[in-house]
Amino acid sequence: MTVYNLGIISYPEAMSIMKSIHQTAVKDTKNHLIICSHPLCYTVGRDENIDFGIDTIKSDRGGSVTCHSEGQLVVYFCFQAPNPALFYRRVIKSIDRVFARLLPGVKYSKSNPGWYIDNRKISSLGFRYSKGVSMHGVSINNRVDLKAHNIVSPCNLSGIEATSLQNEGVDISMQELTNLLTESISTNFDEETEYV
To answer: Most exposed among 42, 91, 115, 148, judged by the fewest C-beta atoms under 10 Å?
Structure first.
């Protein structure tokens, strides 16, 4: 598994890099993980047509509206996924293990994909697949401005508000969270990790 840590990068620029790495993954049949954080922006999935009353960036992922901001850890998977259902289960298990260590009350919801504590959403995911390789990924709210994140309801879900690890009493740096998540993904996909 090759890991790219892009730091803070705009969403459009990250999408351009992800698509380039996706093409590499199609050719080299290896797994590539992109780690980053985005300046404040709102993105909507390819099938969402609602006007949320704010500027949004159209994405080709699945899902509805998502807020990105600094302090949110974003991981994009350009992974070999000949069986998308199996790939998806491994991603969920990877994130579950991170929350089991940090905040055991967090649970994954199959009906409204993402991770929640009661009615508070702390992590989102959305994927698409092309040529047997996944694109897009998972975001985890670590230390974010929740006012910005709650301008819209996470993923347009009624009665749901955004929360963060910090808001739930977990004090962890972005680097520590990155290390924990990378280790969990590496373990669940049985991959050695190479950083570039």
So the answer is: 148
